[in-house]
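Reviewers asked in the last cycle whether our approach scales beyond single polypeptides. To address this, we selected a multi-component target totalling 583 residues and predicted its structure end to end. The input consisted of the following lines:
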Amino acid sequence: MNTGNTVQDSVTALKKKRAWHWLEYVFWLAAAASVFLLPSQHALLTQIAIWSLFALSLDLLLGYAGIVSLGHAAYFGFGAYVAALFAINFTGEPITGLIVAGIAAGLLGLATSLLVLRGTDLTRLMVTLGIALVMYEIANQMSWLTGGADGLTGMPVNPVLGIFPIYFRPANSYAYVLIVCFVLFFVAKRIVHSPFGYSLRAIKGNPLRASSIGIPNNLRLIAVYTIAASYAGIAGALLAQTTPVVSLTYIDFQRSADVLLMLIIGGTGYLYGGVVGSALFLVAQKFIGNITPQYWEFWIGFALVVIALFARDRGVFSIFERILGALRNDKAKP
Amino acid sequence: MNALETIGLEKRFGGIVPTNDVNLKVREGARHALIGPNGAGKTTLINLLTGVLKPSKGRVKLGGTDITNLKPHQRVARGISRTFQINQLFGELSPLEAIALVIGEREKLGTRFWRAFGSDEKIVGEAIALAKQFGLADVLGERTSSLPYGKQRQLEIALAIAGKPRLLLLDEPAAGVPEAERHEILETVAALPKDVTVLLIEHDMDIVFGFADRISVLVDGKLFVEGEPKEIENDPRVRAVYLGERTDD
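The resulting structure, written as structure tokens, was:
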């Protein structure tokens, strides 16, 4: 084997890893086209997009940094309440609301990361779960501010940047959500393919060695936890802006569990797992749920068992991958 | 000048004292070997030097500076690198990625979050040069977990060297390497840059006497004796506690 070529090949391969795959272009073009081509499904598509963003934020933790969380809705819900209260008290301009919610949720993430990062996986599961339960109960008790169990209504949603109305306009509203998701996906992709992103992978892969090559593991994990919390807060703010009421369901255990479920169905560690998972989850929920709710629970449980047993890393994607891999091998054979 | 010095270093786990009043001095540029029978406390000592464990008593000095209270990654920044007895690698990454990661962290560029990993030509160039030196050029882009054990062992040392340490701690570098690939590792160890101080922890006497210019013998957590290879080889006490056990070696 010619060594010079292998060296060049591996450098090229390294560059190729961070380049956009053609499927990604197809996906985003299709998403943009759906604004015009699928008007009847805008409500569902908006839900999928927001869940995808929420799952993406969890993927940054679980897929790249190896941090498990059963309470990610804490940041989602916090962002939603902050966005709603900010809109009610200051301005209803959505982008400003997203930024404020993102910063607020990020700060909450920063503060709670110090608790989460202590200990092992099991400790982390318990601590994240506990944080979300505490946040839920705070939202419930502070009903003078949050509306408690009745929810928070009357949030004004002004035109985006003063020019693009989204209030009660499903197509515009979906386009707005999609653009926000695209920007944040783009940023996330930059982050996971940066030296910082690689250091997270190193910590996930082997924390002992990571610290032995000079990586300050805790600082890096605090940073990614803050970023992920901020993303979750923005996803929550998006839902608040596109739904008439912010309620306790934004922050409850079901939401934390669902987002984890979606991410695992779609697969972790390649950013699109959340999209695949939430699309499958919500579409299946809609269609199977229409037939009978019990069926829904049955099938989601069944899917989870299958995926946990056979396709843990990349979820359903690994099944496609296997098929694609098999096709490629067939082609490669003379 | 001592590259490394420990002063009254002690570690207790309940009633067990794996490191007991150790006063070790490693000269700048030395090829120093630390030997001792199984359970003598060699690995505990390494963990105390690298900051994985906190000592119960005593100080650790690197080049005259007290580093006792520094965390592992801070000690790396001060110039301590180590390899592990059992490979500690990044299975998902390729050797190129792993080496480039170490170089980036060494240059304090690990917090770059917007620039693409591997886009810094200087870092990639250095990583490739280092990989070639360690016989990894033909597997640069492979997943580390799929490499043969000998290559992984080379990478284990390459990662430590990529940090450009002043002091390198080698924990049984040839452990588990098949006889046929052993000479590669030994050549690698012998070819380490002369300005790097090396502390070698090793069981294999051939490696120790072929490599070291100074030997410390650790027994039951205590520094038993220290000297030139010749002195150690001829010291009857050392033969009794250590070499005597392995006369068939």
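The interface with chain B takes residues 1, 3, 6-7, 9-11, 13-15, 18, 190-191, 193-199, 201-202, 205-206, 208-209, 211-217, 220, 223 of chain A (CB under 8 Å). We regard this as preliminary and will revisit it once experimental data from Aim 1 are available.
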